[in-house]
Structures
1.
Amino acid sequence: MSRGANSRWLAAHALIVFAFLYLPIATLIVYSFNGQGVGGFPPRDLTFAWYRVLFADDAIWTSVLNSLLVAAVAVMIALGFGIPAALALDRAHFPGKALFRRLVLLPLILPGIITGLSLLMLFREASVKLSLLTIVLGHGTALISVATTEVFAGLQKLDRAQEEASLDLGANYWQTFWRITIPNLRLSIIGAALLIFTLSMDEIAVSFFLIGRDNTLPLEIWGRLRRGITPEINAISSIIFVFSLIAIVLWYRMRMTAEGQPEIVTELVETTS
Amino acid sequence: MTATTTNPAESGAKTAAAALLDIRNVAKAFGRNAVLRDISLQIAEGEFLTILGESGSGKTTLLRIIAGFENATSGEVWMAGERLDNQPPYRRRVNTVFQHYALFPHLTVEENVGYGLRVAKLPRPEIATRVEEALAKVKMTAHAKAKPSKISGGQQQRVALARALVNRPRLLLLDEPLSALDANLRRQMQVELKSLQREVGISFVFVTHDQEEAMVMSDRIALLRRGELEQVASPREIYSRPATAYTAQFIGHTNLLRGEMKDGVARCQSLSWRSGFRDGPALFSLRPENIRLASPAAHADAVRFRARVERHAFHGATDLLQVCCADGLQLTLRASSREHWQGDLELEFSIADAVPVRESPERN
Amino acid sequence: MFSRAYRAVITVPPLAWVAVFLLLPYALLFCYSFWSVSASQAIVHSWTLDNYRELLRVDVYWQTLFRSMWIAARVTLFSLLLGYPLAYYLSFHAGRRKDLLYQMVIIPLWVSYLVRAYAWKTILGSDGVLNTLLQYLHLTRHPLEFLLYSPFAVVLTLTHIYTPFTILPIYASLEHIPRSLVEASHDLGASPLQTFWRVILPLSIPGVLAGATFAFVLSLGDFLAPLLLGGPSGIMISNIVVSLFGAAYNWPLGAAISLCLLVLVVALLFWSENLEKKWSFR
């Protein structure tokens, strides 16, 4: 039957696309062990030398710490403003709601340069010096949209009847919020935190314009790239990849437990329309 | 267990009609789960056959096998002398009305109805005429340009019907098409569907779990239980002469009398009557409407007994009474709501109305 | 659920943040585009249309914008061509492996942009993996120059990065198509191919539009890939903006270009949204 033949062609295409998506990264990882440098084929002199260089590289580790700090604070900001935003979008009616919804979600689809530059101008006019703080504010702003989307999706799956039952049994709005709503959103919130943390660690487009003296990890790498490429960069990239991989799989598993497949981008699309 | 099957020709449907669809020993298992076991059934030209069963009986699976969306694990399906089940659904002269209609949301009513004709690349004018005809038949002409999301459930159902019929299939399959409608609309549609079938003249295979619906509409009913045919007969016959305890209970209300046959006498607790069946344990089905107040003179063919009214249930036209005999035997009977029967009653039923039925063993 | 205090708490803080960190910056962007820069590199807060006149007058801005749009269009096209069949496979043919394959699609989506762009840089260079591999296999004798520091490299890298962005919305809209519609189509005589053209494809258009919009808009405004891999011929409009905020130091002009870009992007988003609604059939 033709369905079988179709299936085979489609599977072959899928394989090619996955190869396209993963081979470059696989190459990167392989060459992080290459004694001869980033290029050349075939890879020879396999060694851990570059990783040793990496671990001795203080500047990189300082930037990693900076990134961790920034990511942690960005998560707090994004959740702190994103959870109320999701609730507001889901339940409250107020003037300007449509505009608010679009603005909150805009940074996710706008090229990072626009978000970065507009914030740069803000800090300039407000005479705020560029530093990790400005990067934190930039990440927070950009990533509120992620928090809002995730929590909003979680709210859709929340059974309203539970909250009504809580009110019926005598709890007021606040108690209901803390006892019923938030616990039900637990998985969405944790998932969002994980995702935001990862995205913040990797963020470069917005950070590019808001950087002061202290580098985050991506910007540190970027600076190196302008100067010259060594497999040490392959090494740190490989490590970044592994951590991202773990974080994403964890996030996905969490979302699946909260039921249904995470339709990341469509939720976005639906909430922007 | 072999089912009791009446040949379509015997049941009074278009007599001398040829068998259009021939289902031969079809079985279907999903993994280790056997959903259909050895089903053999014939459907005549122009007949309205209902496949009746509870959820899990396999009725939808059987329909899907005929339509081509499932393959039987074993057995064959033939239509008009040719093998059907080795063809993909889009090559079969069979069309389906889906349970939730499955109308194409991006096409108008008109475009939906004409879909099959466009796919078959018929000339445009012919498509237009046939679509118009089909829409008129289901009284949806006024909504031809509307999108499915803008019309009601009942209207969608008509469109689904038109879309299937316009292709002039040899067989129309209907998968519980009325289950999403409210009670009044359902009753109306049952009548309309039946007259439509008579008008169009093609065989309809209708799947439902609603036994009243089956009785109203069908020429024959095929009762399916856990993957096997329990009985296949006309509504009257299946009602008045159920073959098994399950059939008796599933279709309408009944009293199941468990007793012994010995030396030509059937004994069921305090009741006894002459009966010609063989000795041994026996099971009888007695419909509530067949129990009546005893007439003053005794009858040879009637069984008299005394019982006290325990419970009343109002059912509109009739009451359903639960009575209890001295020995504890409980029976249900029907009485007109206007008479208010109470206390101790002298009741009787005709021997002929105690229909012997087979046991229906538990099946996994 | 709507006590006054509750409503205030959930609306005011986000609104405040959005006002300060989104509305205000965009307003500033707007203002800056009408200001100018003095010789001493101070921003002169007097209103003028000079920046816009400059944009209209000087060719390089238009040319770069069109080149950027052309690059973005190619990225979008290739991403869709790669992504749609994969999304289709995932939705209709993947069966038990659906879950695993879905994860394999979202992983590259969230893995660092920089890591992936860097990977291509090391692969495409004249001493890079690809060139040395081709020479090793005796398929070429000299390194292929066009692989790196060219629009080709930018398109290739951005396609790599944005293909997952197109797969997800297409997959979502395919998943939304009730399978009974596919069966109904077969029932009415349409073969699988006809069913695809008449039923599945039309109903998946919102997903295609969403994915295409993402890919196009994000590629258009990209500046990192051109910086790493584009070379002089691969410069995109955002690179001009970056240099105006850096070495070329003309913030107002940069703001003007950014504002134009912002307006263009927002217009595209609105247009795409409208199209999606028209093709939505819900």
Note: The two ends of chain C are 29 Å apart (CA to CA).
2.
Amino acid sequence: MKVRKEYLEALEKLKTDVLTMGELAKIAAKNAIDALVNHDKELAARLLEENSVIDRMEFEIENQCMKLLALQQPMAIDLRTIGTCMKIITDFDRISDLAGDIAVIVLKIAGEPYAKPLIDIPRISEISQGMIADCLEAFASHRIEKLEDFSARDDLVDGLVGQIQRELLAIMIENPRVITSASHLLYIALYQERIADHACNIASRIIYMVTGERRKLE
Amino acid sequence: MGWGGESREEMSKIETRGLNVYYGAVHALKEVTMKIDANKITALIGPSGCGKTTFLRALNRMNELRGAQTNGKVLIDGINIYNVEVDVIQLRKKIGMVFQQPNPFPMSIYDNVAYGPRLHGQRNSTLDEIVEVSLKKAALWDEIKERLYENALGFSGGQQQRLCIARALAVNPDIILFDEPCSALDPVSTARIEELLTELKRDYTIVIVTHNMQQAARVSDCTAFFLMGELIEYDKTSKIFERPKDRRTEDYITGRFG
């Protein structure tokens, strides 16, 4: 006999909505860097518009969580799932905000030559998008193997950001006229680093959801 | 403790070893081995017929009154209460019990509380104090101190239940067993009893059977999940409700059981 049909359906809807929100955040992160690489102001502007959808989703999902907590007294895996959803939607929202911050910079600097060719920034973007994708997959499948090396991937991102920082500083010292454009790129690198940090937060929440163990990935 | 019995074994407030209970051909409790700590609230949960009430009643030999056969050990302070030398009257004095339906005797509040002490030979001169202390411990005194000689049956369900707790406390037990003490009460009375339970655990060891999982989660320190006569999982309450180990526990507490 199937019991608590409505409850289980509400839980399923919650998970689907969180996955959708995560997918949108991942796309925003990707689009931000695509817009940068291709000098695509249109894409950057669209990204900023679409971010309001993600903002609304965060409220809406939080609402679903509160309702389930108040009305259904979830326990064990259900409780951990809802707790995880409430936490990770904030990370997804922050990721899309950071993508938005990058888009704002793109609107300012696209069309002009950048202070340096983009090599590492797209690499970081690829790594952090991979991390978000693995989070979404683990959230859906409850298989956490792909989250195990997140600390190493985050270290890789941090290393690349450090490298970009040093390079840009050298460029700025050499040629003070590019300070404005170089510092824009520096911001973008730092935003990318934070996106990877949020992916780590999400991963450690999903590990908790699946195993009940609290583990910090950083 | 005063009921005789074999030499003390390794101490836990309550410990069962390979406990089995049969009602005729029905094997109601299967090989339950479990330690219960002093001054803790231990909740027993599980679906109807899982054996949780049978387990509770095995702790003060109440199952015998229903003609059950018991084997295995129940050690209280290290003494097996199923030994032939054990004085069951003394045992039940040490282990109080509160039931689902408030069941005060049809007499005054005072006489209800004094009933047990009188039966155990307490002199009238000390009864006033026992009655007052017991009613205070049961968080009932302030409400009824002016009405001590009124018939207990005229009070509300929540007050009657607290009276039953006071009655259990009056004979100075070590352990109190609660068999769904709130299932007949409204939410406010339930909250008062729950608050009282957490007060009482300072002085007593409490074991409570409850159908209300939120209640188990709210009041207990440890929770035991029973299913079809077996003890499936027993752990700290926070662990049971946040990350149970056994799939069957998880299915039950998440309501996927059916």
Note: Residues 1 and 86 of chain A are 30 Å apart (CA to CA).
